[in-house]
Amino acid sequence: MPAKVKKPKSFGIWGNTDKPLFWELLDPIMAWATENQIYPYITTRIQDNLPHQFDHETHIIESAEDFYNIDFLLTLGGDGTMLSAARAVGHRKTPILGIHLGELGFMAEVTMAEMFDRLNLVAAGKYDLQHRMVLKAEIINANGPNVFYALNDFVIDRGKSHRVVTMRLLANDHFVSDYKADGLIIATPTGSTAYSLSVGGPIVMPRMKAIVVSPISPHTLTLRPIVFPDDRSLEVSFPEDSVDEIAFVVDGQVNEYLDPYAKIFVQKAPFDIHMIDFEDSNYFHTLRRKMGWGKRGE
Q1: Class of domain 134-271
Q2: Domain 10-127+278-291 class in CATH
Q3: Strand duo 59-61 + 183-187: pairing
Q4: Known catalytic residues?
Q5: Residue ranges of the domains in the chain?
Q6: pLDDT by residue for the chain (298 residues), tens digit each?
Q7: Distance (Å, whole) CA 241 – CA 70
Q8: Distance from the first to the final alpha carbon of the chain
């Protein structure tokens, strides 16, 4: 059953300010906000880079708690922009609508050409909310415990080393396998079409609740990706200290180096990310159009 939605009275803008297209779209978005009587909020990064001729009234998103004051967050950039926005929103349930300004934009699937048509639907309350599963990782490392959240994936890899890493995987304290590989990807259904897909992992529809584990270049023909139900708690350790600094990457954007005695505990996070969806959205059409799914080579 679709989540209950409301007509927004305010919205936030989260953008890749390094893209000239972002600045070209900012004034038209402000004009749309004025026309629809929806009050805009912008980030401090946008504020710090505003052109001198900018004369629109806005509030500033100064802390994560300000997400409680907005009815949805508009991201302008690519999938990386959307992932960073999702991390900032976290557990606060602010719906996200992604506009992609680049070439792929699989998560931020709304194009610039259809942006205002989609925004008009949101203004009229004609949209759905899709809940996307998030993963939580707790790392026990030499410098103490640390917690991370990922909408796409956690990646464990050999870092700067040229040697394979041995990784032991447990699920609910049951031994699954020892992986001798370049690394391991632990992905959500949203992340199943990202790095995990490129190493042969399965496509998992985003509304499903599952955890995908895919080895990176395993040193055996028998290890294949595996899908766990979302009630499993995974543990990764390193029984052979063959690599001094093992890299840990969150959604391709946050890095930490692990010592060989570190342990990683991964489970479903206690919150979802809410993404704005529309009645005519078609996941398989997006796969075909943006990923070339099902097309034969020429």
Answers
A1: mainly beta
A2: alpha beta
A3: unpaired
A4: 79
A5: 10-127+278-291, 134-271
A6: 445 678 999 999 999 999 999 999 999 999 999 999 999 999 999 999 998 788 899 999 999 999 999 999 999 998 889 999 999 999 999 999 999 887 666 777 788 889 999 999 999 999 999 999 999 999 998 878 999 999 999 999 987 777 889 999 999 999 999 999 999 999 999 999 999 999 999 999 998 999 999 999 998 888 999 999 999 999 999 987 666 778 999 999 878 888 888 999 999 999 999 999 998 887 777 777 767 777 766 5
A7: 48
A8: 41
